[in-house]
Design brief:
One of its GO terms (biological process) is amino acid transport. It comes from Photobacterium proteolyticum. By secondary structure, the chain is an alpha+beta fold. A four-stranded antiparallel β-sheet has the order 5-4-3-7, with no helix packed on it. A three-stranded antiparallel β-sheet has the order 2-8-6, with no helix packed on it. It folds into two domains: about 60 residues, OB fold (Dihydrolipoamide Acetyltransferase, E2P); about 200 residues, MetI-like (MetI-like fold, Orthogonal Bundle).
């Protein structure tokens, strides 16, 4: 064990090295002659621009007693009623033409980067759910004594782990998507679930096989059936041992989900590309996108560490 003084000394060394790295990155950024404009990123995270309310036709403005605005159209169409706004730009009796700005309303809405982040979380969580089910079934098939199920599981794992995820996404979207009429979002979930399920299957297989055979023998000697012994004795112990690699696979899944942008799913990565095409703030956007991915994975890692500590104290 390091003494407190030595521990603080090494923390200081780490902070110094980190400061040198940050300074080196800063110096490198000065050499590329790039005009950093971080303030342009804010609207793409949280959009605070006022919502413009425009006339849907030509007519006359009427200011009601409750300050609501009524536009009486010239050709007898149903009037346009505006009840909620923050800034009024017309007066009673003003002539209004179609498309004229009538009022503004203050609003806070999620920017495209936050919307893309939510899509990334959604597709990752759904894919993980199906990947765990697929991985559990395949992992049990891998340790089965039935040659048919064992060989099918082995073939699935080897084919999926031996081919790139990007290729699998294209195959699922253009081939399976055409056969089963899958939309982009469903195709992305299927591809990620199949890919991640192969890795989870191996994690579960190794976790089960790491449990001493005597555990199963003891459970069977107490009168438990094989499935019951697996559910109540083997799998709970295997879960504790496989939690760290399972968490690592989930983090990998979140990062791999960026590849679904190639089939036009507007996740965080695709949202970043769209923002860059409109703002030309290339470096700022990619740094923010990387930071959002890092925030997501770091939060997940922290949560898994908390679960590990809980499980450790329950032994």
């Amino acid at each position: 064990m390091l003494r407190n003084s030595s521990r603080w000394l090494w923390h200081g060394v780490f902070a110094a090295i980190l400061a040198v790295l940050v300074f080196a990155v800063y110096q490198s950024s000065q050499k590329i002659n790039y005009n950093w404009q971080w303030e342009r990123i804010t609207p793409f995270l949280v959009d605070t621009s006022p919502q413009e309310i425009r006339a849907s036709g030509s007519g006359t403005a009427v200011i009601n007693a409750d300050n609501s605005i009524t536009i009486n159209f010239d050709y007898g169409d149903e009037p346009q009623l505006i009840t909620t706004y923050d800034e009024r730009l017309v007066e009673d009796g003003d002539l209004i033409f179609e498309g004229d700005l009538i009022a503004r309303s203050e609003q806070w809405t999620m920017g495209p980067l936050v919307v893309g982040l939510w899509v990334t979380i959604e597709i990752s969580v759904i894919s993980l759910f199906f990947a765990i089910i697929l991985g559990l079934i395949t992992g049990l098939m891998r340790i089965s004594h039935n040659p048919v199920t064992k060989n099918f599981a082995y073939l699935y794992v080897e084919v999926i782990r031996g081919t790139p995820l990007l290729v699998q996404i294209f195959i699922v979207y253009f081939f399976l998507g055409t056969i089963f009429d899958l939309d982009r979002f469903a195709a992305g979930i299927v591809a990620l679930s199949i890919f991640t399920g192969a890795y989870i299957a191996e994690i579960i297989r190794s976790g089960i096989q790491s449990i001493p055979p005597g555990q199963m023998e003891a459970a069977r000697s107490l009168g438990m059936s094989y499935p019951k012994a697996m559910v109540y004795v083997i799998l709970p112990q295997a879960f504790k041992r496989t939690l760290p690699p399972m968490a690592g696979q989930l983090i990998t899944l979140i990062k791999d989900s960026s590849l679904v942008s190639v089939i036009s799913i507007t996740d965080l990565t695709k949202a970043g590309r769209e923002v860059i095409s409109g703002s030309f703030a290339t470096f700022e956007v990619w740094f923010v996108v990387a930071g959002l991915y890092l925030l997501l994975t770091t939060t997940l890692s922290w949560g898994v560490q908390r679960i590990e500590k809980r499980l450790a104290t329950s032994d």
